[in-house]
């Protein structure tokens, strides 16, 4: 987010805004925004996100996870990268009245902006008996089948307290290369993207927002050679109901990234707002 003459974050496809080159000295003065109901992104993002009604997440710029902002697109100009919102964007928020951190006023800690909508939506109905009981998606023991999931919005998935019931779950798929790209998991009742007993899985340019428990995770320590690339996690909350197991689950002090094996690769991921940990390595053998 920034002005037309200020450095701003470039976009990786339709997922989020990532840091561009950091200048030697930070620009002085307040954030450069044309008006409270407008913001600048790259031309490619404005083209992709410009559909009226698109919902954007602006991550928190304070120490408090819940101070994210959800805004709705009214119109966009791909030539200039200008996006007009349906309502004004508060320029200052939080108990200390902090300004929104942009590439114009804080290039090292500018907020992230993510598109929350996808053309295909998997949404679970609310359970009349349990508001933490949603859907779940599992790739179950497919060692010889390459799996690919891309461009899906997954809403109200995960079943709190139930082992293996997560929004996206690779389970005992061994070493077949598979990919999970450009998806959104939101309002998850239990975890987000889980890799268990599987290798060579690539999770790239995904978004996770407003979940309970660990978010991006490897499960028991056997997982290796998986790649986590340019993913965004925001507003991760402690679990309301723990899975019963003999090893002791720790989702009541969750990490946006919770990893049990160091033999995986991590590149360009962003953790933006959580109740406990951003990145937690809890190595298990």
UniProtKB/TrEMBL annotation:
Residue ranges of every copy of the CEMIP beta-helix domain listed in the record: 133-282
Keyword set, alphabetical order: Signal
One Pfam family, short name: CEMIP_beta-hel
Protein name from the UniProt record: CEMIP beta-helix domain-containing protein
């Amino acid at each position: 987010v920034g002005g037309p003459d200020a450095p701003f974050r470039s976009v990786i496809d339709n997922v989020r805004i990532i840091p561009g080159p950091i200048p030697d000295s930070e620009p002085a003065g307040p954030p450069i925004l044309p008006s409270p109901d407008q913001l600048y992104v790259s031309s490619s993002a404005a083209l992709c996100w410009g559909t009226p009604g698109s919902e954007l997440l602006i991550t928190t710029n304070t120490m408090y996870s819940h101070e994210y902002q959800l805004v709705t697109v009214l119109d966009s100009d791909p030539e200039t990268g200008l996006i007009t919102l349906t309502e004004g964007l508060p320029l200052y928020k939080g108990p200390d009245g902090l300004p929104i951190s942009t590439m114009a006023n804080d290039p090292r800690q500018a907020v992230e902006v993510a598109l929350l909508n996808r053309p295909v939506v998997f949404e679970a109905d609310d359970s009349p008996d349990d508001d933490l009981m949603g859907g779940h998606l599992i790739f179950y023991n497919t060692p010889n089948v390459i799996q690919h999931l891309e461009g899906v919005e997954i809403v109200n998935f995960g079943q709190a307290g139930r082992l293996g019931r997560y929004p996206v779950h690779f389970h005992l798929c061994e070493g077949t290369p598979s990919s999970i790209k450009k998806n959104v998991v939101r309002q998850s009742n239990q975890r987000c993207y889980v890799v268990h007993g599987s290798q060579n899985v690539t999770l790239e340019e995904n978004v996770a927002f407003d979940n309970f428990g660990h978010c991006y995770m490897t499960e028991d320590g056997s997982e290796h050679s998986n790649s986590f690339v340019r993913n965004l996690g925001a507003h991760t909350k402690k679990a309301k109901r723990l899975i019963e197991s003999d090893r002791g689950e720790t989702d009541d002090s969750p990490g946006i990234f919770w990893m049990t094996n160091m033999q995986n690769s991590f590149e360009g991921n962003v953790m933006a707002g959580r109740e406990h940990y951003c990145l937690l390595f809890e190595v298990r053998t």
